[in-house]
Amino acid sequence: MRLKHCHNFEDYRALARRRLPAPVFHYIDGGAEDEVTCRKNVESFENVDLVPNVLRGLGDVDMSVQVMGQKLSVPFYCSPTALQRLFHPDGEYAVGAAASAAGTMFGVSSLGTVSLEDLRRKHKTPQSYQFYFHKDRGVNRAMMERAKTAGIDVMMLTVDSITGGNRERDVRTGFTIPLRLTLGGMASFALKPRWVFDYLRHEKFRFPQLEGHIDMSGGAVSVGNYLTEMLDPAMSWDDAAEMVAQWDGQFCLKGVMSLADARRAVDIGCTGIILSNHGGRQLDGSRAAFEQLGEVADAVGDDIDIMMDGGIRRGTHILKALAMGAKAVGIGRYYLFALAAGQKGVEHALNTLKSEVERDMKLMGCTSLSQLSKTNLAF
Ligand SMILES: Cc1cc2nc3c(=O)[nH]c(=O)nc-3n(C[C@H](O)[C@H](O)[C@H](O)COP(=O)(O)O)c2cc1C
Question: Residue 358 in contact with residue 107, Cβ under 8 Å?
């Protein structure tokens, strides 16, 4: 499968499937337990229809949005994801460069494999830092200080992962970091010699965000174990409020779902919330973020920037989310599958999505995204 044959999400997924060892592909593709929420995330967009306006005498369309104090040229950003150098040796470098070329924000995960400082030096485009709250409060303060010094624009505290989701595909393949595989898992690596060659030839796999703060040298740690053992399930609203005060800048909670929590995020001074169920990778059976969006946007949309992620596969999904009240949306698997083809792959994917948004805006009869509202939706 070659990039020039990729026209949509499913094509990038097929490309990744061809290029990545099966355990790595399944780590990206999979979700928690029965993957009901994974499927629901996509289906939720199909339950709402777009109602276009016509004969508007359209000229050029403006796809830019303003969110969390950042101007983005397109209404979507690359949501932070872990372990990107496993998907391509250039990992976060490739994603940062592609996001930069598209004029949008990219997120660096606490479990990122390139340092946030290196990325900050390379790219001027807005950069967010996805924060996991560790048991050791001193570590949390030091990591925040480090992100501030590096010049991170937006702090994103993930609040839906105080323990690891039950990702059964990873259990079956034996997916751990460093890689220690089941026999079946090993065989699937043998089938992708090019990936193995690239993996061994390039810079050693590291977790630069955690280095100096957390000892990750103690053997194989599954990502689920990291979440379960290192992160603090006792994290509370007071802890979050303290972080907001320490950060003293653009700060959002990633993984809010209920209206009550959205209101509390406003109360503690957050400037944004991301409605998200972590791409269906944490609590299976959780509602889709898109389904919560209308109610939350109606109640607190004037007080806080609302974003959402999960299940975005088409430009029309983005327009539906914006019409429902989101300021911007995050994409995860969409760019991660394309990352199997490196920076070119991510650029290709972001361009595909961008041209869909542009075409769909014209078909909806709008020149600016602020013209979209619930009147453009039918339920
Ligand atoms: C492989 C993978 C790794 C992820 N790693 C993180 C992470 O480290 N921190 C985080 O807050 N979210 C993480 N996410 C969740 C994404 O940021 C985002 O919420 C989700 O992928 C959106 O759903 P989508 O993949 O359907 O677009 C990850 C998602 C995937 C697919």
Answer: no
Q: Do residues 143 and 6 make contact, with C-beta atoms less than 8 angstroms apart?
A: no
Probe residue for ligand 1, chosen from 12, 29, 79, 274 as the CB with the greatest number of ligand atoms within 8 Å: 79
Q: What SS3 class is residue 299?
A: helix
CA distance 283 to 170: 16
**CA 376 – CA 322 distance, rounded (Å):** 10
Ligand 1 centre distance from Cα of residue 128 (Å): 14
Interatomic CA distance for residues 97 and 19, integer angstroms: 21
User: What pTM did the predictor assign?
Assistant: 0.96
Active site residues: 278
Span 3-368 CATH architecture: Alpha-Beta Barrel (3.20)
Contact between 293 and 308 under an 8 Å Cβ cutoff? The reply is yes
Q: Give per-residue pLDDT as tens, 143-177.
A: 999 999 999 999 999 999 988 899 999 989 888 77
Write down the residue that tokens 């020149």 correspond to.
Answer: 367
Ligand 1 pocket check for 279: Cβ under 6 Å: yes
Helix (H, G, I), strand (E, B), or coil: what is residue 144? helix
Residue 268 CA to ligand 1 center (angstroms) comes to 25
Helix (H, G, I), strand (E, B) or coil at 79: strand
Residues 187, 367: Cα–Cα separation, whole Å: 52
